[in-house]
Amino acid sequence: MFSRQSKQIFPAWVRYALLPALALSMFSVATAADYPQPGDLAKGSMLWAENCGRCHQVRNPQDLRDDQWITTAFPMSIRAGLTGGETRDILTFLQASNAVIPTAAVTVTSVTVATDAPVQSGKEIYTQTCVACHGADGKGALPGAPDFALASGPLAKSDDALTQSILYGYQSPGSPMPMPAKGGNPSLDESGVAAVLKYLRDTFSH
Amino acid sequence: MTKTSKKLRLGFLALAAGLLLPGIVLADAEYDALQAQVRDLAAQLEAVQRTLAQIEQKQEEIPGTQETAIAALKQDIADASEWRTPNSLIHLAGYTDVGYINPENGDGSFAVGSFSPIFHFQYRDIVMLESELEIELSPDGETELTLEYLAIDYFLNDYVTVVAGSFLSPIGQFRQNLHPSWINKLASAPPGFGHDGAAPTSDLGLQLRGAFPLGEMRSNYSVYVSNGPELNAVFEDDEFELEGIAAEAFGADADGEKVVGGRFAILPMAGLEIGVSAVTGKATVTGLEDEDTGEVTEIEGAIARDYDVVGADFSWMWKNLNVRGEYVRSKVGEALTGTTASEGATWKSWYTQAAWRIPATKIEAVVRYTDFDSPHSSEDQQQWALGLNYLITNSFIVKGTYELNDGIAGSRADNDRLMLQLAYGF
């Protein structure tokens, strides 16, 4: 009995207390490569959508790990005729968008919509983070992105379900391209998601 | 003492003894039990102390406090990130395809296309080695290994990369951008854009390439100097004739004549690229092809001829539609003297291709028209190629292609073909 317990090195409370620390350090691991310098995420998603499907099917950001995207982005920048700055922007977007998307729906029991006004309007968020893939008309700018204007499209779902998709990412079965968590923009918070979702409904639903 | 008191005392004693004796016997039994209990307890205490000592010892061996535990975890994480983000990165990519080909007047056959591993070795954002091998199975069962390209890319700054070594020809689009089977939307190359056609395939030399903004537009460029191609001649009807241009990277420059070339492209708006290419220099006949067997013997003493290539290409992506086209012309000048003296010759080809992904499905329909003009009329070919593809993933594709070929009646160029292909890019 003693010997079994002593195998678990730390008491349970220590392990739970360590989780946030661990998560934080994991984050610094994910961005630990000190090269190339980080680029502009919003420009990156736009450049990616505009350029990376010119010669072949757009590759899913989840196809490769952060370091593999480095060894792919550099030769691709030579092929595609991108400047170093554009390459860094695209790489920043790809490395931010390749996190695993939970397949079993994460249940967000209560979505607390912050009452204080979001820093950015829904429209600003949409044109910065979402337009690259969803298009200005909401009909989808690349294969796999849904048509928001369709009555049977994603906007038929509940606010809770859509908030969850935007916050944690979403992939329908067999889809060629997933929706990255927060559209790949880690600084998007819940109030921003609420604002952009309201913008989607106001602009694209009938 | 009186007699009565003596008696009394005796009586007392007897009474006391009578009362105590059983008590003493009783006390003895209890004492034994207690002793046994104490012994048991002592043994148990010893066991507990031993275990405690063991636990203490173990806790000394492992970091017991929260701080040391965090420190240990941090070290583990640092070790893990060491592994993930070193200065040197290694990545293996590539593609492969297998298929079935059924020509109009011949038997169908399963075939493996090629296994093409691509090696990427990178040191920070400074330098990269890029190399692709092509491993193919010949019809007679032999394995052929070709070095597709082997180049060192030196990322000089944001606008210039130096590419040194052997590289895919930067002329036009097909060779450098579309030939991998998971990218090419049809199972075959457009006539004139494969090996030995109108378009150069690879070069060995030094290339500068990069991109820069042009006002609101974007642009990209490539300029290079290379060993250039070699020529083959054939002796036919009592005279020499140019047979073909071997526009591949040659390990040594047999004729000592270099060529210079390049491509410049603009992207006036998102999704649209328009490019022009040119190569100029000299090329020399170094091989004589046997008319019947096709075998090439080396020859010397031919004089250098003019060699010029021009090309133009465009590609346009709009929603689910991708339209592209390309023209290339390779011209070899005449040689009036020397061995293999002969007229000049011109190879040219153009194609246009449209591919449409049916919205919200994995199905893609493709149509391509090509017109290839060779100095040998038996190679001239007009081709409609129709394709229907199923994209299982973005780089794992089932392709069905039907080629309607039109050439000189009875020639290979006139033979229609059905091709099924499974292509996987990794």
Describe this structure in words.
The complex is a heterodimer of chains A (206) and B (426). Chain A has 206 residues and is an all-alpha fold. Chain A folds into two domains: 67 residues, no CATH class; 86 residues, Cytochrome c-like domain (Cytochrome Bc1 Complex, Chain D, domain 2). Chain A is 50% helix and 0% strand. Chain A has eight helices and no strands. In chain A, helix 7 packs across helix 8. Chain A is globular, with a radius of gyration of 19 Å. The N terminus of chain A is likely disordered. By secondary structure, chain B is an alpha+beta fold. Chain B folds into two domains: 80 residues; 340 residues, Porin, CATH 2.40.160.10. Helix content of chain B is 19%, strand content 50%. Chain B is built from three helices and 20 strands. In chain B, the strands form two sheets. In chain B, strands 1-2-3-4-5-6-7-10-11-14-15-16-17-18-19-20 form a 16-stranded antiparallel beta barrel. In chain B, strand 6 and strand 7 form a beta hairpin. Chain B starts with a helix and ends with a strand. The mean pLDDT of chain B is 89. The chains are: A mainly alpha (206), B alpha+beta (426). At the A-B interface, helix 2, helix 4 and helix 5 of A face helix 1, helix 2, strand 1, helix 3 and strand 6 of B.
